[in-house]
Design a protein that fits this description.
The protein is α+β, with helices and mostly antiparallel strands. The chain has a domain of 98 residues: Hotdog Thioesterase (Thiol Ester Dehydrase, Chain A), CATH 3.10.129.10. The chain has three helices and five strands, in the order βαααββββ.
Amino acid sequence: MSAKVSYADVEVGTEIPEQSYPIDRQNLVMYAGASGDFNPIHWRESHARAVGLPDVIAHGMYTMAQGGRFVTDWVGDPGAVVDYGVRFSTPVVVPDEGGAMLVISGKVERKLDDNKVVVALTARSEGQKVLTRAKAVVQLA
């Protein structure tokens, strides 16, 4: 598989349209099973509140993974992501009723050599940034 986005077709400032990712408690339980992270702050409201959280929160790595999904959906090839990193700024609160919505957008921040670009991501939930310094280096066609 190769990237469906061409290096020649993007410039610094090229925006990647935002995508919305719904998150509910079932997603968190499935992620816990896949990752082995069964910390009860991610599935038991009483425990989350007991440690000072407003409600159950999404796993940080689950939130980060959605950013990676955003980039790979744009480029069309999961193998095109050469590097990816984030800092966690605010947890994604996932109420039992209605869940949460994670909204991610991106912008080409730099063009590098060898058909690579740096994509800066913005990830928000309930209007708050949940990831900072979220950047991916992507190998384009």
